[in-house]
Specification:
- The structure is a single chain.
- With about 775 residues, this protein is an alpha+beta fold.
- The chain has 3 domains: about 210 residues, no CATH class; about 325 residues, no CATH class; about 90 residues, no CATH class.
- The chain is about 45% helix and about 10% strand.
- The chain is built from 25 helices and 18 strands.
- The longest helix is centred in the first third of the chain and has 33 residues.
- It is elongated.
């Protein structure tokens, strides 16, 4: 017998409570099945963020969180009515157990979960995040912790979804069901936006079916099943029809390229070794179209003035000797088309090595000339939109070729083995006049270095004594120690590169010092690419090997829409070039790879150096590196961090689901105010219980109406007329319902908020499953 069947009948819900409890318990297997399907689908989609995802582990995580969700729900059924505190405690414990088991299933080492090992766990997680910095998705690196950090999101999202959807004894189950899907929708979107294959139509259909199953399947009556399926198929067909009209080759809102202050950016390439002053913005400097990603060389720093490496106005070198004739295959040349965006510079970008040819692609063609070190210099700074094509020579010899390169090199490169010793008044704490120093020549007695090609400064006693008496004596000793017993200049370069990578820390904010490079090596032991490249170049010169600092940009991020590499301001970088007789200038990079783009930089470093360090396997190494880079180039979706995608994806699903929840409540409200008003009466009963008014014995609609009186009673009069077929009385309106809510609210902000939750404006709550009214 339904509540308030007669006008003056007391309220009674006992029979309805039993029926609804039975129905809710019976629907639990269906709810768990729908939850499992949604979790599996979202988790598998998210796991595509890494190459070759462990599908078995992903499925195990989904199964574990589903079992945990079922345990939470069953525990609530058995204990919640009689032992609410015990139920809450067991639910917390079960949630933690579920999270731990899911984390173990995804691959987290069990011993790291012990409290004594949490410090080591935090360090491993931090290194995993460092390995992901700047990567192009999907992640193709081989770092175990980088892969594990990506997959560790699955236990977190799955456990959160299970707790929200199946927490025992809580009210507002409909709202929690909506919020519980938000973590799963977030990881689903994180995988979709970084996916290579365009399967979004199929994924959208599956997602729609799963959402329907989650919200409708557990409570769907058999007689409504055919109509529900027809609605689902109709909405699917409509969405697939409208999809081609809404799709576009370019995003509607390109937030990755948005720049609130689109201004030209310039760089001071001379090295100062203080805190990094280069722009770290994501504004696009250049767009580069080339076959393979390479470092984009702009200029070289040839002179060490006793404190820092600078670019002089007349750099030494020989264009003819930079490109030895007849000793290189055709693959050592690279052609690239450059489009200037936000970079303001008169120095032109090469395609990775030394520019040998230049061709302007439409628009103005300013005069440009090539300097002795191969740098292209335009007469005026280039404007945004300028386009040119450059042909560059970048040798990539085998390891054997580098080892057998002669130690004797042309005398034209002897200046690249020389360096100045600091004067007494020299101090790196004072800002230098870089313009004056670039113009100033070097006095013959101010610089020291190799006395002849193929010899080291240590071989000249007078030079050695001068260096050992200078502040650079410890660096001189370290350079000799690293070069001891090396059979070639290439071996020396490898030793210094490895020593710096393995023993020093990357930091954008190193302290200032009087002798910056000496302090970097023996005191601070941290710095960024300027310190690493400057220290390696100076130690190579102390060993009599021609070396210089190269400056420019890392290749940036591949944009599959434009099929170009997008080079940003934060991609600015410095590395080292070493001269080998008969080969030319070869690049080395002593900066730790994780600090210059994470796994992306590691892959880049391998692509640039594996071929020239692989001996007879160099050809295979170059081929595999090229294939990996081609795969990255075709599969990348951008450089947006996964956590940013997750945050942005959270707002969309939550907003859409909240709107759907509100629309469903609006529909229930309209239906409740039609017919005999049963739903509206049930909502009123639940509202009274939530507001703490209770139900005195014998409470009826008429009695409650007499208690409220005034405008607040109009809603009750309308409900009574609907309930008992009084056609002469007008039906209740939303305005009447609003007045009733005001009458039921207690004074104060808290009372008004409770009334708003009990009788939401414009949307009816679901009828209560249990009530004491």
């Amino acid at each position: 017998m339904s509540a308030w069947a007669h006008e003056d009948a007391p309220v009674s819900f006992e029979g309805e409570i039993w029926d609804r409890e039975i129905g809710r318990t019976a629907s639990l297997p269906l709810r768990l099945a729908a939850f499992l399907g949604f979790t599996v689908f979202a988790s598998l989609q998210y796991s595509t963020l890494i190459l070759h995802p462990p599908a078995t582990r992903v499925l195990a995580v989904a199964a574990i969180v589903t079992v945990g969700a079922g345990t939470l729900a069953l525990g609530g059924r058995l204990l919640a009515p009689r032992h609410p505190r015990l139920t809450a405690l067991l639910a917390v414990c079960m949630t933690l157990v579920t999270f731990v088991l899911a984390s173990l299933a995804v691959g987290l080492p069990a011993h790291l979960l012990a409290p004594a090992n949490w410090g080591a766990l935090a360090g491993d997680v931090r290194r995993g995040f460092d390995g992901l910095t700047g990567w192009l998705w999907p992640y193709r690196g081989g770092r175990p912790w980088a892969r594990l950090v990506v997959l560790a999101v699955l236990p977190l999202a799955g456990t959160a979804a299970a707790a929200l959807c199946f927490w025992p004894g809580g009210r507002r189950e409909g709202l929690r069901a909506v919020l519980g899907l938000s973590p799963l929708l977030t990881i689903f979107l994180a995988g979709v936006v970084n996916e290579v294959a365009p399967l979004w139509r199929f994924q959208g259909v599956v997602l729609l079916a799963l959402i329907f199953a989650w919200f409708s399947l557990p409570t769907l009556r058999p007689q409504d099943a055919n109509r529900a399926v027809r609605w689902l198929l109709g909405c699917t067909a409509l969405a697939l029809t409208a999809a081609p009209l809404l799709s576009s080759a370019r995003p509607w809102i390109d937030y990755t390229g948005w720049d609130p202050v689109p201004a030209a950016t310039s760089f001071q390439w001379d090295q100062l070794y203080g805190p990094n002053t280069w722009s770290r913005s994501t504004a696009t400097m250049l767009e580069v179209a080339e076959l393979r990603p390479r470092r984009l060389r702009i200029a070289t720093l040839d002179r060490f003035d006793g404190l820092r490496f600078l670019r002089s106005d007349a750099p030494p070198g020989s264009v003819r000797l930079d490109e030895p004739p007849g000793r290189h295959p055709g693959g050592w040349y690279e052609r690239a088309a450059i489009t200037v965006a936000g970079l303001r510079s008169s120095l032109l970008v090469g395609a990775g090595g030394m520019p040998t040819g230049l061709r302007w692609l439409g628009g103005a063609a300013p005069m440009a000339h090539r300097q002795a070190d191969g740098t292209l210099l335009a007469q005026t700074p280039l404007e945004g939109g300028s386009r040119y094509q450059v042909l560059s020579y970048e040798p990539q010899p085998s390891r054997s070729g580098l080892r057998h390169a002669s130690r004797r090199f042309p005398r034209a490169y002897l200046p690249y083995t020389r360096f100045q010793l600091p004067a007494r008044e020299a101090n790196g704490l004072r800002a230098p006049n870089l313009r004056e120093q670039a113009r100033a020549g070097v006095a013959p007695d101010a610089a020291v270095g190799a006395p002849a090609p193929g010899r080291t400064p240590a071989s000249a006693p007078e030079v050695a004594r001068r260096v050992e008496a200078s502040p650079y004596a410890p660096m001189f000793a370290l350079a000799q120690r690293l070069a001891a017993g090396a059979g070639s200049s290439y071996e020396v370069a490898l030793r210094i590169e490895s020593y710096l990578r393995e023993n020093y820390t990357y930091s954008l904010d190193p302290p200032r010092s009087r002798y910056p490079l000496e302090a970097f090596l023996f005191k601070d032991r941290r710095g960024y690419c300027q310190q690493f490249s400057g220290a390696m170049t100076l130690m190579l010169r102390m060993d009599g090997i021609p070396a210089r600092v190269a400056v420019g940009f890392l290749p940036g991020t591949y944009d599959p829409l434009t099929q170009r590499w997008r080079v940003r301001a934060l991609d600015a970088h410095a590395w080292v070039e070493v001269y080998f007789a008969g080969i030319g200038w070869v690049s080395f990079d002593p900066t730790p790879p994780a600090s210059v783009g994470g796994a992306r930089a590691t892959l880049l470093s391998r692509a640039v150096t594996l071929g020239l360090r692989g001996g007879r396997s160099g050809g295979r190494a170059r081929s595999s590196a090229t294939a990996a880079l081609a795969s990255a180039r075709t599969g990348a979706k951008g450089d947006v961090s996964w956590w940013l995608v997750a945050l942005l994806g959270l707002a969309g699903p939550a907003g859409a689901l909240a709107a759907g929840w509100w629309l469903a409540g609006r529909r229930r409200l309209r239906r409740g105010l039609e017919g005999d008003g049963t739903s509206a009466v049930e909502e009123l009963q639940g509202a009274l219980a939530r507001l703490g008014h209770g139900a005195a014995p014998g409470l009826t609609l008429a009695r409650l109406e007499r208690q409220l009186a005034g405008d607040a009673a109009r809603y009750l009069e309308g409900l009574r007329a609907l309930r008992y077929g009084d056609a002469a009385h007008p039906a209740p309106t939303l305005a009447d319902r609003r007045r009733l809510r005001g009458a039921l609210a207690d004074r104060g902000m808290r009372g008004r908020l409770r009334a708003l939750l009990a009788l939401p404006p414009g949307a009816a709550r679901r009828p209560p499953r249990a009530s004491g009214t």
